[in-house]
Amino acid sequence: MSVQLNEECIALLDSVDSVNLNDAATSQLVYTVPVGKKCVLDHVRIRNLTATAASCTCTIGQLGALTDFLNTQTLSALNAAAATGKLTPVPHATTPKAIEYAAGTQLYFDVVVAAGSACLATIEFFGTLKNA
After folding, report:
1. Residue 61 counted as domain residue
2. Among 30, 109, 119, 131, fewest CB within 10 Å belongs to which?
3. Is 1 a member of any domain?
4. Tens digit of pLDDT for each residue in 58-75?
């Protein structure tokens, strides 16, 4: 029996290079849940920055609900080229909500406030897949 790694542990689902963090109109499709699968997104990694993204804010979610995985996130710690960041729901006294996305769901990285100067980055979505 052959098993895909991303069906048994948190793994890279997909990535997009050269996402423009200096354009508030950027709404970048990163991943579409495959037919016959369900997906639970775990975290998003931003890496390979070409400049500071400290003034940038973003949201992450599905088409039509771009904040359902993460509401507005401020990238203030990504204040230099080559900085790397991890975006994930933060556990508190109550369990953070996770969403099981259905097959065909398109998941986006959405720039809300531009970085303020030219800045490109690689956006990576990590999670797990299961049969629908």
Report:
1. yes
2. 131
3. no
4. 999 999 999 999 999 999
